[in-house]
Structure formats: C-alpha cells, structure tokens
Amino acid sequence: MAKQLFYFNKKEKNMSVIKLIMSDIDGTILDKNHQLDSHLIELMPLLKQCDIPFVLASARSPLGIAPISKELGITECPIACYNGALISLGDKILRQHTINKKELLLLHDFLKKEFPTVSINVYSGKDWLVNTIDEWVEIEATITGESPKVTSLADFIKDEKTLVHKLLLIDNTDTIQKLQKNLSSIDFPQTNFYLSKDNYLEVTHNQVSKKQALLELAKYYQLSLSEIMTIGDNYNDIPMIETSGLGVAMGNAPTDVKTCANTVTDSNDQNGVSKAIKLYVLSESSQLNI
After folding, report:
1. Which string of DSSP letters, residue by residue, matches 50-89?
2. Distance between CA 63 and CA 240 in Å, rounded?
3. CATH 3.30.1240.10 placement within the chain
4. Which residues are CB-contacts of 49 (< 8 A; sequence separation ≥ 6)?
5. How many Cβ atoms sit within 10 Å of the Cβ of residue 98?
6. Dihedral angle of Cα 267, 269, 274, 279, to the nearest 10 degrees
7. Per-residue b/e over 227-249, b at no fewer than 16 CB within 10 Å?
8. What does the DSSP 8-state code read for residue 26?
9. CATH assignment, 101-205
10. Any residues with CB less than 8 A from the CB of 107 and at least 6 apart, and which?
11. Per-position b or e across 147-169, b if 16+ CB within 10 A of its CB
12. Helix or strand or coil: residue 42?
C-alpha cells in the first residue's frame, strides 16, 4: 500500500494530508511537444491505492481531455472542462455553468455585424460547432485532434433546448484585441471574456474558473481545501493555486504564478508534475516543510 504523507500547511499552520490532486494539462502535464510527463502514468496506481483522485482541469473540451485521461488510466476520476464550465464523471454531469442565452444572442449578432471575419466556435457538451471550416478552425482542429460539426450557429443558439458552455473567438491578434476592448464597453453582466492566447478570446459564464471548479470538487468529495493539491503553469491557474492547501507552480510558469504558489516544481519538460507528486504526496519522508 502506498503511503499517504503529511505536509505542513502554512495557510492553516497545521499538518495536512493530500486527498485530491487537481492539475492543469497544457504546459503542466504535457511538455512543449505535447507529450505526457513520462513518469506520471506509473504514479497513477499508487494514487489509486491511496484513494487520491487525479482531476484534470483545462480549457479543453471533454473529447480533448478524454485521450489524456485514458492514457493516464484515470477515467474513473472527474474532469473539469472548459476551465470548469462543465465538470463531468463519465457521462454524468456533476456541475455546469452555461452562457446566458440572451447575452449569447446579443454577442452573436454583434459579432456578425461588427466583426464578420472572427471565427466563432461554439462548445456544447462534447460538441464543437462552427458555421464553416475556415483557416482558424483548421488550425484548432490540428491542435486538439477534434473535428467540428458545421451547422447554423444562429439556429443552434436560438434553440431553447441547447446549452452552450464556451465560445472561442479567433482572428488575427489586432482584431481580437480590438474586439475585447469593444466588448468591455457593452453590458454583459453574466458573461466573462478573457484572452487564452493573443488571438484567442474565450467566452464563458462569469462564474466559470478553475477556482470555482476546485471549490465544487472539494464539496463533491467532502474535503477541506487544505487536503487538495493543485498544479498549474499559467495566469488562469493562479486562483486555483492560491485557494488550495498546497498550490504548486511549474518551473516554466511566469514569475507572477510562481509567486502565488506554496512551492515551485521543475518545468513541464523535466517531469515537474510527477516530481511534485513524489515529493509532496508519495515521498518516503514523514513530514514535508513547504
């Protein structure tokens, strides 16, 4: 039986044991060549022996996360998709936050009128929907390995039965950043807009974040935050890293992300995630002073 160990939790000034790990994917468990941390797979059975779920949290869709979850052998663990807009376990939805339909229709009409060149990508559950296969869609399909469905987005959005978890708006950098500036002057009280790349504008319900997903998973597993370790590499991981009992930043993370973490592991090209798990969860040491 693998040994569960205590670490010193500075936030609560007591000893805690990790009972759940929540990790980002790109730039964290995947290296610069999009290959999985080479030592992570061998650690999954040890985490299972300790009943420690390993939850993947990403802007990716369920289909984008599924192959990684399968390769790790953790298909029995929840996944937090679309940065937490959809938390699922197999075909069961544990929690979801969908974009307000009224605001979504307003946004769609605004884009078609004022920014007609922007590629609109709609994500609903496992489905990726587009009006047409443009150059941006082709690039995204190459990156994710997914295939979009071509349909009338206007009709899909207007259908009262459909739910939309995320929009991804893509164009050249100047256009997307101009779009973001324009949207900041329009009233979208329940919708959040943020850049995931210089030319990628993500759109979700304003309650969506990896931090919120962390809180919801803590409640689902009936755990305190001090019993959860989070690992990430980018700015959108900061709230999650700051909120968990043990927040770990990757060695390749920006300085601001590292500053917010309890500790920093090696980079994604140096198996940083598996090293952190070995050191802070499965180490032979009996106490860890973070």
Report:
1. TT--EEEE-SS-HHHHHHHHHHHT-TTS-EEEGGGTEEEE
2. 23
3. 101-205
4. 1, 2
5. 19
6. -40
7. bbbbbbbbebbbbbbebbbbbbb
8. B
9. 3.30.1240.10
10. 167, 183, 188, 191, 203
11. ebeeeebeebbeeeebebbbbbb
12. helix
Distance CA 140, CA 97 (A): 23
Smallest Cα–Cα separation from 85: which of 216, 222, 221?
216
Token pair, residue 139, equals: 């690039």
- What distances in angstroms separate CA 236 from CA 59, 116, 148, 256, one per listed residue? 10, 28, 25, 11
For residue 250, count other CB atoms closer than 10 A to its CB.
29
**pLDDT tens readout for residues 68-86:** 999 999 999 999 999 999 9
Condensed to tens digits (0 to 9), the pLDDT of residues 9-54 reads: 555 544 579 999 999 999 999 999 999 998 999 999 999 999 999 9
Q: What does the alpha-carbon distance between residue 289 and residue 287 come to, in Å, rounded to a whole number? A: 7
Closest listed residue to residue 148, CA positions, set 172, 171, 132: 132
User: For residue 58, which of 32, 82, 37, 40 has the smallest C-alpha distance?
Assistant: 82
Judge residue 144's burial from the number of C-beta atoms within 10 Å of its C-beta, 0-12 exposed, 13-18 middle, 19 or more buried: middle
102 Cβ partners below 8 Å, 6+ apart?
none
Residue range(s) of every CATH 3.40.50.1000 domain in the chain: 20-96+209-282
Q: How does pLDDT run across 157-207, given as a tens digit for each residue?
A: 999 899 999 999 999 999 999 999 999 999 999 999 988 888 999 999 999
Q: What percent of the chain has pLDDT over 90?
A: 87
- Does the domain at 20-96+209-282 match CATH 3.40.50.1000? Answer given as yes
User: Would you say the C-alpha torsion 106, 107, 108, 109 has a positive or negative sign?
Assistant: positive
Structure tokens at 285: 């040491």
DSSP, collapsed to helix, strand or coil, labels residue 139 as helix
